[in-house]
Each structure stands twice: as structure tokens, then as C-alpha cells.
Amino acid sequence: MKPTSHAFKANARAALGDPKLQQAMTNLRAGFVERRALMVSRMPEWEQLRDQAVAIKKHTLAHLDFYLENFERNVVANGGQVHWCRDAAEANATVLSICRSLDAKTVTKGKSMIGEEMAVNDYLEANGITPVETDLGEYIIQIRHEGPSHIIAPAVHLVKEQVAESFRATHTHLDPNRKLDDARQMCDEARGIMRQKFLGADVGITGANFLIAETGSSIIVTNEGNGDLTQTLPRAHIVLASLEKMVPTLEDAATILRLLARSATGQEFSAYTTISTGPRRASDIDGPGQYHVVLLDNGRSALLGTEFEDMLRCIRCAACLNHCPVYEAIGGKSYGWVYPGPMGSVLTPSLLGIEEAGNLPNASTFCGRCESVCPMKIPLPKMMRHWREREFSRHLNPAAARWGILAWAFLATRPGLYRIFSDGAALVLGYFGKARGRFRSLPLAGGWTDFRDMPAPQGQSFHRLYARERRRKERA
Ligand code: SF4
Known about the structure:
By secondary structure, the protein is an alpha/beta fold. The chain has helices spanning 8-16, 19-25, 27-41, 46-62, 64-77, 88-101, 113-118, 120-126, 136-143, 160-170, 183-200, 226-232, 250-264, 319-322, 325-330, 341-352, 354-357, 369-373, 380-393, 399-412, 415-432, 446-449, 462-475, and strands at residues 81-85, 106-109, 130-133, 203-206, 210-212, 217-222, 236-242, 246-247, 272-276, 290-296, 438-439, 454-455. Among the domains are: 43-302, NagB/RpiA/CoA transferase-like (Rossmann fold), CATH 3.40.50.10420; 405-475, no CATH class. The strands form three sheets. A six-stranded parallel sheet has the order 1-10-7-4-2-3, sandwiched between helices. Strand 5 and strand 6 (217-222) form a beta hairpin. The structure holds iron/sulfur cluster. Iron/sulfur cluster (SF4) binds next to helix 14.
């Protein structure tokens, strides 16, 4: 998928004016935010668990080479194969060569953000292989030819009427007068279609929530069971995973799993947690004949030891998206690539470079909710600030913004001058805004006043009020 993050502002404006998107996004609060809060409130050891999870990931990242090699040894001992890939091109070529070696025509896919990062569907299609998404949300996005908008709920930006429309347009062999009024009817239809795809697939591709070094296993969590059918029915199972998915032991994965479902969907545990360890053994009644792990770097190893290393702790739970006021207002497609919301605003520039992903680190009010709900305690606002600094130092922001920041820095580092300026501004704006109490437009503030009124100052500047309060306290 070609990134369009540079068009973030235009995308966001269009999203704000899209009534269906706005209607769909209201589901975020009841669907994720409230359920997560309830789950966390029932768990007194929540903070302790977060600390434990952070320690596991920090340890793993500090010894990543050791655990990656350990993982490969165990995969091979189990009869599988690990393919080390520097970038998406290498990973796609690897997937294609596995498919060709099996003369595969159809591939079923479980949900995989790494697959999105690689744009593996487009690549396979261009090479004569049909990929079929089996996660219901991903399937809907696939038949609508859309890019990702949420990392765990791919169709969260759609209302059910849009889904019904897409089903009618795609499943043209079914009765055109059938009822598709509610989610149950649509799920039943998708299930019927999917069953045939599962049975006919030559290769199954899944992502991985975790890779386990001590056993050479991969773990996926789903709520639909599609991942299990994707990986057990075809002749080969390909796991697409980035290298930071590694944890040392099954017990470590179990610790982080307790955080994952609660943070993601507000469940105690996802409906299915599936551990895959190698291909089918002689004593197994089913399972794939081949097990491949395509291990993608794509810029991640370059983050180790930098101020962005913490981002490699991310477990893709989406809590930061679900709690972000910016994401809630504009949805995920505005971010223009695979990873939206606060985690995307850090990860996208980290993987693609700030030149490709400008605007994204600015898509934040810095309210701090993302960091406070992140189960892995990733300091997202701090890292966005680092990207903003780079954007500034490389002269990537518009000239007006640069001059504004320079003027601000000049004043902010001279407290006396700053006070004179802020007192003067409060006086002048207070005088001119007195009649209405607000401004409908202001020079240099169109970014604000084009969409809402700017309140006029109602009295003294903060500094004066603060000084007055301090004097009052000293006298008391
Ligand atoms: S940054 Fe934190 S909250 Fe956001 S997806 Fe990653 S782990 Fe979840």
C-alpha cells in the first residue's frame, strides 16, 4: 500500500465531513473504551501486570539476537523453516516462492498487519494467486478494495448498510432479494462463503501475536476461529511476523496475553488463542504439511538503541487508537498507511521515515490518554515530540509554522518579555472580543477559527492570576 500520510490534513477534513464514518465511529466508545475500563477495574493487579510485561519486552529487546536464533533453532527442530527478510520485497518474494513450490492457486489469510505492511495480497494477485481474507472485518475491507483503518477491528469505520451493500455487489450468485438487515444475517452469509474458501485453499497465511523462542511456536488470538481453519486445513502454513513479536517463553506470552484482550476488546481472553509449533507430525490427525515463518525486519532493528526502541514493545492492542480523540474524530484511513492512531503516528515515521510520514506526529493533542491506557507503557507523546523535533530540524513543516515556533521559542525563553507579550495580547484580544465574547476569525489562527469560534480572553493572563493567587496564599 502506497503511503498517503502527507495528505493527512485533506484526508482528515474529508473524514470530518463524512456522516457515515462519523456515525460508525460513535461505536468506539461503547464497544471498546467502556468495556476496557470495566475489565481493568476488576483487576487489582493491573499495574503490576503492566510492569511485568514491560520488563519481559525490555529484556527480550536487549537480547533479541539471542532469542531470534533460539527461535529459529527450535522451529527447525520441529520440522519448520524460518525465512529472514530485510524488507517487504524480500518477504513477498519468499511467500510467492513457497506458494509456487506447491503450485498454489488460492491462499486463505488470517488477519495480519504485517501482511498489510508487505501489501502481500496485491503482490500475490499480481502473480496469479488469489488471496482470500478470512477475518470477517478484513474480508469486508478486501471486497470493498479499501486499506486498513483499525488494527484490530478492520471494519469499525463502516455502518451495517455499507456492509450489506458490499455483500450484494460481491455475492452476485445469491438471491438478490435475501434479507441482509442485521449483523447475524451478514455473518451467516459470510460463513457460508468462507467455508468453501477454507476447504479449497492450498496455502494458509496468518500473522503472529507472539513468537516463542523456547518452543519455536507462533501464537495468534482471534475471536472468530478463522485463524485455526486458515492454518490447519491447507497444505502449508506461512506465518508473517516482525522480529519484535518475540518473547522468551510461553509463560511470558501468557503474562502479556492477560493484558492484550482486556486492552483490545475488553474481554478477559479472546475466544481463540492458538499455538502453532511446526508442521503436522505423524501422530497428528490434521495440520499443514509445511510450516514457514517469514520473519520481517523492515526497519525495526534500526530502532534498537534509539529513542524509538520503546515502540518495539507494542502488542497491537489498539487501546491507544480507541482512546484517542483525534482518531475518534477522523477514523483510521486519514493516517494514510497501515498503522493509524497514536501508535501509527510513531511507528509510521519510524519505518518509512519522517519525510514520508510528515503530519502524523502532529496528529495529537498531547492529552496523554494513549500513554495512560497503553498496557506496555509506551511513551507515545514523548516519541511524537521527538518526531516533531526532527520534522522541524529538517525544515519539513510549512514556513508559517516554522516562524510561529521560532517566535514562540524566542518569547518562551525570555520570561520577562513573555509576560509583557501575554499581558498585552490578553488586553487587546479582550478589548476587541468583549462584545461577542468570542472571535469568528482571527489572523494567523484560521486553522482554529475556520471550524469553531475562538473564545476571547475574559480577564488577566495566567501569569498575573498565578502571581495574585501566590500572594494571597503567602498573606493567609
Ligand atoms: S502503542 Fe500501546 S496501546 Fe497502542 S497498540 Fe501498541 S500496545 Fe496497544
